[in-house]
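Propose amino acids for all 149 sites.
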C-alpha cells in the first residue's frame, strides 16, 4: 500500500461487534484458513477490509442457515473461488469455442458438486425432521389412548 492509497479497514473489535461474533471466532477463522486479514497495524493488530467482511458474512450465513461445519464452509468457499476464477478466465476474451466449452463445463461441474453437497445436507435434515415427526405422531396417539381410559 502506498501513502496515497486509502483503504477502509476495521479492527477485530469493530468487526466482531458488527457481525455479532467474538474476536476469538475471527482469530479461529483465520487459524483454520477461512479468512486472512489483509493488513496489520505496526503493533500487529488485525485489520479487516470490506472483502474480508463480506466473506465473513457469507461464512456466517452458511453456518447459521445451512448448519454446515467449518470444513464444509471451506469447501463451499473454495468452490466459489473456483467459480470466480473460471469467470475471470472466461472474460479474458477467449476466442476458441472449444476453450469456452471447457470453461463452461468446469463451471457446471463445480456447481453440480455444490448442489450435490447441499442436497445431501438437506436429505440428512429431512431424515431428522421425519424422525421427530414420527415421535410427535406416536406421542399424539399415546395421548389419545390415555384420554380414552
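Proposal:
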Amino acid at each position: 500500500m502506498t501513502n496515497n492509497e486509502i483503504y477502509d479497514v476495521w479492527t477485530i473489535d469493530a468487526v466482531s461487534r458488527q457481525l455479532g461474533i467474538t474476536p476469538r471466532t475471527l482469530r479461529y477463522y483465520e487459524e483454520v484458513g477461512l479468512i486472512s486479514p489483509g493488513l496489520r497495524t505496526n503493533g500487529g493488530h488485525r485489520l479487516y477490509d470490506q472483502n474480508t467482511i463480506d466473506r465473513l458474512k457469507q461464512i456466517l450465513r452458511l453456518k447459521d442457515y445451512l448448519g454446515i461445519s467449518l470444513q464444509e464452509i471451506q469447501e463451499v468457499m473454495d468452490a466459489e473461488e473456483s467459480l470466480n476464477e473460471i469467470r475471470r478466465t472466461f472474460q479474458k476474451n477467449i476466442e476458441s469455442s472449444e476453450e469456452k466449452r471447457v470453461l463452461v463445463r468446469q463451471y457446471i461441474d463445480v456447481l453440480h458438486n455444490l448442489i450435490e453437497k447441499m442436497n445431501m445436507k438437506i436429505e440428512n435434515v429431512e431424515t431428522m425432521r421425519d424422525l421427530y415427526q414420527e415421535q410427535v405422531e406416536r406421542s399424539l396417539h399415546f395421548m389419545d389412548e390415555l384420554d380414552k381410559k
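The first strand starts at residue 9 and ends at 11. The chain has a mean pLDDT of 89.
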